[in-house]
């Protein structure tokens, strides 16, 4: 869908929504629960949104995959012209279950276990993504039990994490011109390792945010702003690490595979 020049920005936008969604959920859900709607509407509202999106997509979203469009066009031309020899290139391809499994299942598994760097990056991403959702629980404990804030209000410190994600997004945009310049100098051939320098910065900042939040949020005598500001480091670190590593894996997975494989 995206060229090498803009794919990083596209993945950055996608990843920002992936992180900001869970960060916004606790305080939105808390305020809904405290309102006249009650806690059940924290499930009803997402269900209504999901079903509505599904219905609209089913009736109004047009097919965008090129081969499928050509197959439909060829079928229409056959009906109009009565020339049954008209066909698309995709009509010549026979769907083979074994080939589908090889390309879509075995190849990712082979890359995972035969490329040590992919395996290590995957383990690291799994670890920090788990820490992300542990933080979602920890914030409720710190600001709900330690500081005694009411549901909804105790989710407002998540804005620190959201600000951190936004700063990380701006950092990605700031590095994009340099990436495009190197890409053009290399005949539009991306090097996955170009994505990693910002990962090293994000990993250090994320670890610092964990220590900051742990030491600043375990007693009520500490001002609430202290653990809240730690969220800026946490949001920036986890977003940058996850995004750059994801782009790195995409780059490694897009490298040519020898024909004998």
TrEMBL record:
Pfam families: MFS_1 (PF07690). It is found in: Membrane. The keyword Lipoprotein does not apply. The chain crosses the membrane at residues 9-29, 41-60, 111-136, 156-175, 196-218, 224-250. It comes from the Eukaryota. It is a multi-pass membrane protein. The keyword Plastid does not apply. Keywords: Membrane, Transmembrane, Transmembrane helix, Transport. PANTHER family: MAJOR FACILITATOR SUPERFAMILY, POLYAMINE TRANSPORTER 1. This is Major facilitator superfamily (MFS) profile domain-containing protein.
């Amino acid at each position: 869908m995206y060229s090498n020049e803009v794919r990083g920005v596209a993945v950055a936008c996608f990843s920002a929504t992936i992180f900001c969604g869970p960060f916004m959920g606790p305080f939105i859900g808390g305020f809904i629960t405290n309102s006249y709607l009650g806690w059940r509407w924290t499930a009803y509202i997402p269900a209504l949104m999901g079903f509505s999106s599904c219905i609209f997509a089913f009736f109004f979203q047009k097919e965008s995959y090129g081969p499928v469009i050509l197959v439909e066009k060829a079928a229409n031309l056959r009906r109009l012209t009565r020339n049954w020899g008209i066909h698309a290139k995709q009509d010549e391809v026979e769907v083979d279950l074994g080939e589908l499994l090889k390309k879509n299942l075995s190849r990712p598994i082979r890359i995972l276990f035969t490329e040590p760097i992919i395996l290590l990056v995957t383990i690291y991403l799994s670890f920090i993504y788990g820490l992300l959702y542990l933080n979602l629980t920890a914030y409720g404990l710190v600001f709900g039990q330690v500081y005694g804030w009411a549901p909804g209000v105790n989710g407002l410190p998540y804005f620190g994490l959201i600000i951190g994600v936004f700063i990380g997004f701006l950092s990605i945009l700031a590095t994009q011109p340099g990436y495009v310049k190197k890409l053009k100098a290399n005949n539009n051939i991306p090097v996955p390792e170009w994505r990693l320098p910002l990962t090293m910065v994000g990993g250090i900042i994320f670890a610092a945010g964990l220590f900051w939040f742990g030491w600043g949020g375990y007693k009520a005598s500490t001002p609430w702003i202290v653990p809240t500001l730690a969220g800026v480091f946490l949001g920036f670190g986890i977003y940058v690490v996850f995004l750059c590593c994801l782009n790195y894996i995409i780059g490694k997975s897009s490298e040519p595979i020898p024909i004998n494989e």
